[in-house]
Design goal:
By secondary structure, the chain is of the alpha/beta class. The chain is built from 18 helices and 22 strands. The structure holds 2-amino-2-deoxy-6-O-phosphono-alpha-D-glucopyranose.
């Protein structure tokens, strides 16, 4: 089976339409097998437009539809005859006498089915069959069963199909419980088959189709014996989905990513860090379960502050009540999904490496400037954690002997000089020492000092602020140079709130560092953590 993965429904519909159009151009009197359901509507729209533009001519085309509800009259809006008239036949120059759909009003379904089968044969057989796929793997109305019918027949619909198709009816009890449908071999006799699948409700069945063998409980797997089937699907139907969880001091962010690193859903809840560890994790688990009900999640990846003991899989963090907390285990027990965990800065680095600025690099080093300085080391697109799980604590590399004391017990740590907290302290000290400066006045007016204050005062031409900033860049550059000298990565990425300053931070930093190793601002910013966390699960496959 050939697989074409499209970005979205529209692209899928366009590609399918091109294939159908080529069939009509190559053989103007071809026999098309047609399907109903919401999936081929876009294909029919495209064909109608192509016909209108004069690109394809339906005048000699013959069609056979896969199926029809039973009993149902053709003027019932839910009948497949009505559907086809509305979506295709009334919009193109087709000869209606050449369009065939099983007769939902027949009193004798058995002979109607035999007649239908005969007519397909007499037409010379189907050149190109369009198929959708039911969530339970049905094609046409060939439902999962121990025995599949080969030819056109009357069938009972399964509860799953009645439920899925009830969206087109006023109420579920209005959905007919039976249908007339081409059989599996009627379908397999077609010379060529296009199978369409779109949206995440089809993801599970597409996985079964592509991964598992041939099985009557997923009737679409029968298509694997056919030599010329092309599955055209969109990313949502094709791709596995992974949940990324980024635990922070104030909020926990959640993101669902597909196999192509697109975020398809985002959400967040408050962390409530005053609660015990188990309570925090229970809240996270409840949210994960909610999300897993909406998306076909394969695994959960978690980025958390603190240090992970990879032997015991426990987390200890200073700014959360995690003291050897078995976060991954708790989440696995509550959700039943595999859970992977790593440090949040590492996850952000991984996210940036797979889907951000580092997408073209194997080795990157990410520096997060915030209250402290975090580091994430990516080697060969994988997180380097070191033997004890805590590699990359670059905020605590010493840049000044006998320098400022740090909470870690040492002195002169880089984060005491180059974090945003350090910049704020430097800004405050300079304003205090230069009470008449523009900087001091900006602080007086704003009643607050933050990472933006120095930039604001510089904009107003303040030499004191400029001096603070230049010194800050000196400090930042020392650390970045050290990192480059040790790791020589393909790229250094700077993230954290201050990176919003963009080129005003980056340009002087690059100049001061004076290296040919590229330094860039994080492209993903706050999303890097959830993408990286989700990638933990994706990479573990
Ligand atoms: C119906 C049709 C099938 C179709 C399926 C999926 O049951 N008999 O031919 O493939 O629904 O429909 P949808 O494309 O709306 O998901």
């Amino acid at each position: 089976m050939r697989v074409i993965v499209c970005n979205d429904y529209d692209e899928m519909s366009r590609k399918a339409a091109k294939l159908v159009a080529s069939q009509i151009v190559l053989k103007p009197d071809c026999v098309l097998g047609l399907a109903t359901g919401s999936t081929p509507i876009g294909l029919y729209d495209n064909l109608a437009q192509m016909n209108k533009r004069g690109e394809i001519d339906f005048s000699e085309v013959t069609t056979f539809n896969l199926d029809e509800y039973y009993p149902i009259s053709p003027d019932n809006e839910q009948s497949y005859r009505y559907f086809m008239e509305h979506h295709l036949f009334n919009r193109v120059n087709i000869n209606k006498n050449r369009t065939h759909i099983p007769d939902g009003t027949t009193k004798d379904p058995e002979s109607e089915c035999a007649k239908y089968e005969r007519m397909i044969e007499e037409s010379g057989g189907i050149d190109l069959q369009i198929l959708g796929i039911g969530q339970n793997g049905h094609i046409g109305f060939n439902e999962p069963d121990n025995n599949l019918n080969t030819v056109t027949h009357l069938t009972n619909l399964t509860e799953n199909t009645i439920e899925a198709n009830s969206r087109f009816f006023e109420k579920k009890s209005d959905v007919p419980t039976r249908a007339l449908t081409m059989g599996i071999s009627s379908i397999l006799k077609s010379r060529k088959i296009i199978l369409l699948a779109s949206g995440r409700t089809k993801h599970k069945v597409v996985r079964e189709l592509l991964n598992d063998g041939i099985n009557t409980s997923v009737p679409a797997t029968m298509l694997k014996v056919h030599p010329d089937v092309v599955l055209i699907c969109d990313k949502e139907a094709y791709s596995d989905m992974y949940l990324g969880v980024d635990i922070g001091g104030t909020s926990v962010k959640f993101g669902v990513i597909d196999g192509f690193n697109n975020i398809v859903f985002k959400d967040s809840i408050p962390t409530h860090k005053d609660m015990p560890a188990k309570g925090i994790v229970d809240n996270i688990a409840a949210q994960c379960l909610k999300i897993a009900q909406r998306f076909p999640i394969s695994s959960i990846g978690v980025g958390t502050p603190g240090i992970i003991d990879f032997d015991t899989k426990t987390v200890s963090a200073t700014n959360l009540p995690f003291d050897k907390a078995p976060v991954a285990l708790w989440l696995k027990e509550a959700t039943g999904l595999n859970v992977y965990i790593n440090n949040d800065a590492n996850c952000a680095a991984l996210g940036e490496a797979v889907a951000g600025e580092g997408a073209g690099e194997n080795d990157i080093f990410m520096i997060t400037l915030g209250t402290g300085i975090g580091g994430g080391i990516i080697i060969d697109k994988k997180i380097y954690t070191g033997k004890h799980g805590d590699a990359g604590e670059i905020g605590h590399m010493c840049i000044e002997t006998d320098g400022l004391p740090c909470a870690c017990g040492n002195r002169g740590c880089w984060e005491k000089y180059a974090s945003v907290s350090a910049l704020i302290a430097q800004t405050e000290a300079a304003a205090e020492a230069n009470k008449d400066s523009i900087l001091a006045n900006v602080i007086k007016d704003d009643c607050v000092v933050d990472g933006k204050t120095v930039f604001k005062a510089m904009n107003m031409g303040c030499p004191v602020a400029q001096k603070v900033f230049d010194k800050y860049i000196d400090y930042l550059a020392i650390g970045v140079r050290n990192i480059i000298n040790i790791f020589r990565p393909g790229l250094v990425v700077i993230s954290g709130g201050i990176s919003e300053a963009g080129d005003r931070l980056l340009k002087p930093l690059i100049q001061k560092v004076g290296s040919d190793t590229p330094i860039k601002i994080s492209r993903l910013q706050n999303d890097a953590g959830i993408i990286g966390a989700a990638t933990l699960g994706k990479n573990a496959k």
